[in-house]
Write a structure and sequence with these properties.
- This protein is α/β, with parallel strands linked by helices.
- It has one domain: HAD superfamily/HAD-like (Rossmann fold).
- Helices cover 33% and strands 16% of the residues.
- Strands 1-2-5-4-3-6-7-8 form an eight-stranded mixed beta sheet, sandwiched between helices.
- The longest helix has 17 residues.
- Bound molecules: magnesium ion and zinc ion (ZN).
- Zinc ion (ZN) binds next to loops.
- The site of magnesium ion has 7 residues, from loops.
Length: 226
């Protein structure tokens, strides 16, 4: 477990991109993670990103079950790099019920995650942690969005102020989870119809893509200057 960087916390899985080097003891690994976590703790503002439909292309009625099916959306890597270079901690919160349904193994999800994180890093960005819910809707877990469990776990680990934190997502469940966790929700939608008007929880803004979401975040945070 420690070698792969995947660990079970309550009912969700987390993936640490700064996983310890192979061949080191579990204790050393844990210490390193703790040190990295502590060092970077309260000071950094955070941005929470949904995965499918924000970072990578959504697969209609299906799941990204292999790396081949993982396609970055235009501008996603650039957007993450912009967040990283402006000093934002980037965290991903994503439902991956394909695992719970047996359509993909946890190992495969981990493999996909490792590859997408390494591409992000090669593009100059950094994602501190990826939180997954791997349950099915009928499992009634505490982490599957629209429940706020993944976001609350991220908050417990990185101590960001929810009221000053944006969550970027493309579905109603993202907006609901963000609102329940006390965060501000940004909806990514290309639809010109105001579908969100009927939703119980509303996004603070609607943008066509993640790059525009990031520009909005910078503008709101007074960080729009170069
Ligand atoms: Mg999505
Ligand atoms: Zn779950």
């Amino acid at each position: 477990m420690a070698e792969t960087g995947l660990q079970a916390i309550d009912c969700n899985m987390t993936y640490n991109s700064r996983r310890p080097k192979k061949g080191r003891s579990k204790t050393a690994a844990r210490k390193q993670v703790r040190r990295l976590t502590k060092r970077a703790s309260a000071s950094l503002p955070a941005v929470l990103l949904d995965r499918e439909g924000v970072i990578n292309r959504r697969i209609r009625n299906g799941y990204v079950t292999t790396w081949k099916r993982f396609a970055f959306l235009p501008g996603a890597m650039r957007a993450i790099r912009q967040l990283s270079t402006r000093g934002y901690r980037v965290l991903v919160v994503s439902n991956q019920a394909g695992v719970g349904k047996g359509l993909m193994s946890l190992q495969t999800l981990e493999e996909i995650t490792r590859r997408f994180l390494s591409q992000v890093e090669r593009a100059g960005g950094s994602i501190s942690r990826v939180y997954y819910c791997t349950h099915r809707a009928e499992d009634d877990c505490i982490c599957r969005k629209p429940k706020p469990g993944l976001l609350l776990n991220a908050q417990a680990e990185f101590h960001f102020d929810p009221a000053r934190t944006f969550m970027v997502g493309d579905t109603e469940s993202d907006i609901t989870a963000a609102t329940r966790a006390g965060c501000k929700a940004i909806l990514v939608s290309k639809s010109r119809k105001a579908i969100w008007h009927a939703w119980a929880h509303k996004p603070v803004t609607v943008v066509p893509d993640i790059l525009t979401a990031v520009a909005y975040i910078f503008a709101q945070s007074g960080g729009s200057r170069k």
